[in-house]
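Bit of a strange request maybe. I'm writing a small parser for structure token strings and I need a real example to test against, not something I typed by hand. Could someone generate the tokens for this chain?
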Amino acid sequence: YNDKSVLENHHASSGLQILLCFEQNNFLSHLEDSQILRFRDIVVSMVLATDMSVHFRLQGDFTSTFVELPLQISTQAHKILLLSQILHCADLGHCGKPFRFHERWGTRVSTEFFEQGDKESELGLVVSPLNNRNTTVLEKSQIAFIQHIIKPMLQVMVPVIPELQHSLDLTLQNMTEWERRYEARQKGLL
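Reply from user aminoacidic:
Good idea to test on real output. This should exercise your parser:
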């Protein structure tokens, strides 16, 4: 994948192979080849938009297209942008779930990052900041992630999809809980 969005490219490719290569999975079998190719292009675009390296560009594109202007989904590009943003929100959606679920997912993701950091260290590479289990404080990293990534993303989505207000509210409650836990850690209570 030319070292670009490797995980996301792999997911899109594998998912489409599973869909198209197994008759029992292929809900597209009644479509014409041109329609299947169009579906593939849309799915690949959406999945590639879940790469965190394009997060801020996606947010800028979404904001300038849908928030600063009256909501108009007038082109195919607008449709793909909206679908991509929705999938990106879903990909990071654990932040907008009740804390007991969000905490599990946040911990799982952090564990994955730490394991990657351990591998980077074994290979003599510089350990990426969030991947260093010796310096990363879970509560602090979750607060920053919500504050700088999730909260702004949901704030631009709510005017477009008002039903996401509940997710934004839970996200803010979760950030408050992480802040409470971080304060407790600082006082030696955790």
